[in-house]
Amino acid sequence: MIAFIIINVIFCLSFLVFAYLNLNDIDWYLWVPIYVAVAACCGLACFGLYYPKVYGFLTGFYLVYAVKLFFEKDGVRDWIVKYNKPSLVETMQAEKPFIENTREFFGLLIISAALIIDYIVVVHISHI
Fold first, then answer.
1. CB–CB of 77/71 below 8 Å?
2. Which of 36, 99, 105, 125 has CA 20 to 30 A from 116's CA?
3. What secondary structure, in 3-state letters, does 80-125 show?
4. Do residues 41 and 54 make contact, with C-beta atoms less than 8 angstroms apart?
5. Mind listing the pLDDT tens digit for each residue in 88-102?
6. How many CB atoms lie within 10 A of CB 60?
7. Reduced to 3 states, what is the DSSP secondary structure of residue 47?
8. What's the pTM value of the predicted model, to 2 decimals?
9. How many whole angstroms separate alpha carbon 113 and alpha carbon 123?
10. Cβ neighbours for 102, distance < 8 A, ≥ 6 positions apart
């Protein structure tokens, strides 16, 4: 159980930093709440407060949004097929049209993975 708490502390702090770093983005109003919501879920889990329905809802929302980013113009699919997967991390500035969507896509996958881990552990705990 201590590993679960440590992982959630790391997730919580990381997602709060990501939220802070998104404050200067054009679409901060979308990304700050996305990161704060998952940070809150991870932070509350550290204190034994579990909300599996919220994890499921947020994961569903984030994955649907990730699918949208995958298929939209200059999205992940275009990064793979049209642009032949150039580096996304050469600079922090999104100088090419596909960089922002692709980075956001992978961010949503990381967030979803954190919530899925919490969901699985919480469901397992409730069955013990």
1. yes
2. 99
3. HHCCCCCCCCCCCCCCCHHHHHHHHHHHHHHHHHHHHHHHHHHHHH
4. yes
5. 656 555 567 677 888
6. 12
7. coil
8. 0.86
9. 15
10. 69, 75, 76, 79, 88
